Amino acid sequence: MNIVIDAFGGDNAPLEVLKGASQAQKDFNIDITLVGDEKTIKKCATDNGVDISKLIIKHADTVIDVCEEPTNVIKSKKDCSMAVGMKMLSDGEGDAFVSAGSTGALVVGATFIVKRQKGIKRPALATILPTAGNPVMLLDSGANADCRPEMLVQFAIMGSAYMNKILRVESPKVCLANIGAEESKGRDLELETYIQLKSAPVNFIGNIEARQIPMGDCDVVVTDGFSGNLLLKLYEGMAKFFAGELKGILTKDFKSKLAAFMVLGNVKEFRKKVDYSEYGGAPLLGTAKPVIKAHGSSNAKAFYNAIRQAKQFTETKVIDEISSAIESMKEA
Amino acid sequence: MNIVIDAFGGDNAPLEVLKGASQAQKDFNIDITLVGDEKTIKKCATDNGVDISKLIIKHADTVIDVCEEPTNVIKSKKDCSMAVGMKMLSDGEGDAFVSAGSTGALVVGATFIVKRQKGIKRPALATILPTAGNPVMLLDSGANADCRPEMLVQFAIMGSAYMNKILRVESPKVCLANIGAEESKGRDLELETYIQLKSAPVNFIGNIEARQIPMGDCDVVVTDGFSGNLLLKLYEGMAKFFAGELKGILTKDFKSKLAAFMVLGNVKEFRKKVDYSEYGGAPLLGTAKPVIKAHGSSNAKAFYNAIRQAKQFTETKVIDEISSAIESMKEA
Predict the structure, then answer these.
(1) Which ipTM was obtained for this model?
(2) Pick from A231, A259, A273: CB nearest B259
(3) Strands B136-139, A136-139: parallel, antiparallel or unpaired by DSSP?
(4) Nearest to A6, CA basis, from A76, A75, A68, A73
(5) Tell me, what's the pLDDT at A271?
(6) More confident residue, A197 or B329
(7) Which residue on chain B is closest to A226 by alpha carbon?
(8) Of A152, A21, A177, nearest in space to A96 by CA
């Protein structure tokens, strides 16, 4: 197996990418290809004492910036690390791709270079969120601002397959994000999606109000990419807000700091629970081969986990599972 | 001034309504009218020792349930406490209305009984959220699932007027909730709204990603009622999730409990900061007279604060301010 990783994606590239990839190669005993400027990669490794002798390097001249037009990845920036890495997948030289670079460019590249799996209308960005209970997968969390009902149904199928194969959730509970629990709630998109989900090959349990998402009441929440992106980012923002408040509570004065020392273990446990890097990255579901979007601020640990996730994604054949479900719908 | 309150709205009605109203009447020296079944109100007051001797009672036969079709408030349930209370406003017998009952029914009633202010396309539910900085107003947080750009522009005007007059924010910073900061981000709704907001009589500072909302970077966030409702409810859900986690951190074992005792004051301060009841309720902006939606689980303190808010809303003439801004746009 060859996991291809964009060595120049994210705020901490390439150093943290190299560190994570080097460790992952040792632990998982797989091929890992770093894509990007060869000289810079080698110099960075040498300067920081990172052993990349077992990693493969695939040279790419440029890097696509997060501020650039996403479509550049298939136009003026065909030679960027992201495009070159994805081309390896479509050429059969790699099995999965990981990047912490521009989400927009990754979606465009995945759609037009890696290509969609047969029957899938749009790939969706699927994010796994911590909750008071089990983690929940939210999709689409930002790939498609405008969606049609049949796309949301496919998201439900893809999310269920992933949660079942990778997180080993038996018959994942699927909900539709909505402004009320009743079937009559929502916009035309939700009304029609609700009807279609009832007969889809997923364990659809109804609408979910956003209030319930952090309670861990279900395993997969489907919504359009605009709403999903608002939800995902508010989730992150609230986590940051509360982490700040918690810090305030535990550092206000000498007594608070003493108390902080006494609950340090519990705080660490909480931090681990809400730490995105534990979950690796967000899989882009619906592409012909696994593509993982790592968080823009990923550190070595996050890249390491994203590579593990890419490996699992490949091994468990989630994509075949999705294909079967899509086929079964056509036959029905 | 006569503040009219639905004595039968919310999970804790009528007792908590009576308690809050009784205290508010004493402190604010205004007329307060309780709307609902007279016998039940009197019995509840007597049974619980609440002094309602200075409050006016307006009898209403029935109550509209949160599960009912919202339009019932203007059809089969014209005699419910919510409808009767709002009728008082349109008949000039009251100055503002407060209810913790069905949001849907309140929106319908406010639109068709109290009626919209001149020039306003749709009333919006405006919620004030705590942040790491100053509180932010989010609207529409649930009155209109589908919105057009000109409606969002009006929401910006209404939110600005409210934040300026009631929370005394000088030139409130207005943002459009979006999936990216750049002007080119979002759906057609956001693209067109962005253009219109640039020339609207508000201090528009651009798009805001949901991640930044809890940071308190701006004063007013506008969005459609579907997105706004998801954001509002996730805000609530995350607050609950973290309150639970905080409790876990501080009660896990004996040492944690001891630490909890040491930071009790700080925790209380944090709780107060994120406690919705401190802010009263959510004003419905765009109606001919002030209408406040109190939280469904409001206690006496929340009703008390909602009444204070209704009083301020009336005194500060927010509605006139909104009218002037709408007029100025027509002239421009």
Answers:
(1) 0.93
(2) A259
(3) unpaired
(4) A73
(5) 83
(6) A197
(7) B179
(8) A21
